[in-house]
Each structure stands twice: as structure tokens, then as C-alpha cells.
Amino acid sequence: MELNDKQIQILETAEKLFSENGFDGASVRQIAKAAEVNIAMISYYFGSKEKLLESLFLYRMSDFKMQLESVISKNTSYIETLDAIIALIVKRVHRNRRTHKIINFEYSNSCRQIDFESYLEQKKENLKVIETFVKNGQKEGVFIKNVNINLLTPTILGTYFHFYYNKKYYKTLLNLEDDNSIEQYVHNELTHHIQNTVKALLTYDK
């Protein structure tokens, strides 16, 4: 998905406003003002607010498959590669958490006329990459065969989002003093916990 600097500026501004105010609470006029562009430019590039949101989803997912394949292609062990995949997923979802918040809300809104087809196709393609990696690991005897591959990503994302959406509680519980402390915790302790959890699921044979 190739975008120019002005399109990216509009998308990132829309992401911030959609996340803070909701899709209905952020008008094209507000987005244009915050992005320092005119309304006509948003209409020219995206057509409508719904198409703008669809473009935002694709923009945030556009290079994920390529990054996954790059991690998997490196000459490392299956366990090391698995750790790298999980670290990549956590890093990306943390960086793009605003978009994920919007997606989770809008996808569950049956009244919204937003086309999620391209977004869902990309998700399926990403899952295929992970599925192929795990199945190859199973053939090599590294991973057990009795595991639900489709639920690995929800395990990763569910753990992350439970932590992040309850960060006020965890700041007190874990003595995290500020946002920087949370950043460090996400990329270290939380990531390591998720890595250990998924490795246990893939290697523990009852």
C-alpha cells in the first residue's frame, strides 16, 4: 500500500481522533483541521470517512506479512524464531494499539457500513504464514501436534490487551511509575511472559 506523506499525515491524525472520540465523534472537518489540510483533500484521497477508516486499517497492516516472512527466513532455531515472531507481534500491536481499539469497536458494530473484507483477507494471509511455520516445526518434532494454531494469535493479543486496558491497575500492582515504565514492561517482562506461554502451548505434551 503506497501512500504519500500527506495521506499518511491524514491517516495518523484520523487514527488519533477516532481513538479518542470514536468514529462518530470525529468529523472529517475535525480531521482536516488537525491534519492541517482542507476537507477537499481528504475527499480526493479517500472519498469518505468510511473509506478513510478502511485505508487506516490496511495502512497499519500493510507490511506485517513481509516482516513475519523476514523473521522466519532467518537461520535461527524454531524456538528462537517463535520468540522473534511473538516479540514482533507485541511490538506492532503496542505501536498500533489505537488502530486495534478502533477495529475492535467498529467490527462489532453491525450497523456500520464499513468494508472489512480486505482487512480480513490480510489477517488470513498473516495467519497462513504463522500456520506454515508451526506446521513445519511440528514436522521437525520441535512443536507438538495437538495444538490449536488458530488460537495462538488470540492468546498473544488477549494477554497484551488485558494488560494494557487495565494499565492503571498494573501500574499500582507492579510499581510502574510512568508511561516509560509501562513501555519497558511491555517490551520486556510482558513479552517474555507471552513467549513462555506460547512456547509451553507448543511444546508441552501431556
TrEMBL record:
<dbReference type="InterPro" id="IPR001647">
    <property type="entry name" value="HTH_TetR"/>
</dbReference>
<dbReference type="InterPro" id="IPR023772">
    <property type="entry name" value="DNA-bd_HTH_TetR-type_CS"/>
</dbReference>
<dbReference type="InterPro" id="IPR036271">
    <property type="entry name" value="Tet_transcr_reg_TetR-rel_C_sf"/>
</dbReference>
<protein>
    <submittedName>
        <fullName>TetR family transcriptional regulator</fullName>
    </submittedName>
</protein>
<feature type="domain" description="HTH tetR-type">
    <location>
        <begin position="4"/>
        <end position="64"/>
    </location>
</feature>
<dbReference type="InterPro" id="IPR009057">
    <property type="entry name" value="Homeodomain-like_sf"/>
</dbReference>
<keyword id="KW-0238">DNA-binding</keyword>
<dbReference type="GO" id="GO:0003677">
    <property type="term" value="F:DNA binding"/>
</dbReference>
<dbReference type="Pfam" id="PF00440">
    <property type="entry name" value="TetR_N"/>
</dbReference>
<dbReference type="InterPro" id="IPR050109">
    <property type="entry name" value="HTH-type_TetR-like_transc_reg"/>
</dbReference>
<feature type="DNA-binding region" description="H-T-H motif">
    <location>
        <begin position="27"/>
        <end position="46"/>
    </location>
</feature>
